[in-house]
Amino acid sequence: MLGALGTGAFFIIKKPKPETIVIPKTPHLSEFSIYKPDWRALAENLKKIEVWTIPPGNNIAENDYILVGAMSLKSDSDGSQTWTLPIPKNPILAEQIFASGFDGGGNKVGEIFLPQKGVANIYDAVWAGGPAAGVDKDSAVKNFLSSDAFIKPSFGGKIFVSYSTLGEKTESGYFIEYIFGHAEEYYLKNNTPTKGAEATSFLAVYLRKISSGYAVMGALSPRAGENYEKDLQHIFPADIRAQKIVTDANSRTSKVTSFEKDISYLVKTYFKSPPSEIVK
Fold first, then answer.
1. Is residue 142 a contact partner of residue 165, using CB atoms and an 8 Å limit?
2. Under 8 Å between Cβ of 181 and 145
3. Spelled out in words, what is the top-level CATH class assigned to the domain 28-125?
4. Helix (H, G, I), strand (E, B) or coil at 130
5. Can you give the residue ranges of every domain in the chain?
6. pLDDT by residue (tens digit) across 223-279?
7. Does the predicted TM-score (pTM) go above 0.90?
8. Which end of the chain is more exposed for a tag (fewer CB within 10 A), N or C?
């Protein structure tokens, strides 16, 4: 704009540029979904997103929920974010899976659940067609006991297993087999079969019936220490908990000895070694 002075001179009046006001986006969790091989969340201005599961069992409370992990921020464009978390290789037993979002102050700003509900539906959506699919029930259970979901080999050896069935339960679309299971690792040391890692536990093994056989969806077992009794209550029905092998330590010890004898025979056959040459 031009202006005039009394002397006849002109001066220029500049209009101020309009000020740009940026309104920060409100922290918000807008989507949580299966985006294989990941779980994916879409959000705005969040500091952290966690993925949680609600496990199956008796009288499950919020403090029994299981943290799967924290998601990683993959992109952020002016506060519009994409977060991901790799789906675990081994299936997780869950009645529901959800994401919780947190703002910069650590406050929870929202939760979003996957639409699938129930152990079988979640397994089908997330993990169907896993490595244990298409075998008979006994083989499916033994495959699980041999996997790193139950025992982690210390020496890269061969895993041998034995188990005893305590009972079964049929649910909508799947079976639960309650077992007492034992696994041992054996490897060759100086050409002698030698024991490495071992694992023993009560388990509730969840099996999905498919056209070609059974698939293990996962298993629940009681944690050691102060959580043991509480977990027994959550995982196993009363008639299983009342069995002598559960209530009596000597009975469990006797059963493990029986398992060890079974495994010793399997080890001898596998390595073609006499029992006297097996180092336990």
1. no
2. yes
3. mainly beta
4. coil
5. 28-125, 133-277
6. 999 999 999 999 999 999 999 999 999 999 999 999 999 999 999 999 986 555 666
7. no
8. N
Instruction: Please give the single-letter amino acid code of residue 140.
Output: A
Residue 8: which region, alpha, beta or left (left: phi > 0; alpha: psi -120 to 50)? left
Over residues 61-108, the pLDDT tens digits come to 999 999 999 999 999 999 899 999 999 998 999 999 999 999 999 999
Q: How many CA atoms lie within 13 A of 116 on its CB side?
A: 18
Supply the Cα-derived Rg of the chain in whole angstroms. 29
Contacts of 33 (CB under 8 A, 6+ apart): 39, 40, 41, 114
Determine if the peptide bond prior to 237 is cis (ω within 30°).
Answer: no
Q: 3-class SS at 57?
A: coil
Q: Identity (one letter) of the amino acid at 82?
A: T
User: What six digits make up the tokens of 26?
Assistant: 């409100």
- d(C-alpha 6, C-alpha 188), whole Å: 107
Tokens coding 271: 């390595």
The residue length of the chain stands at 280
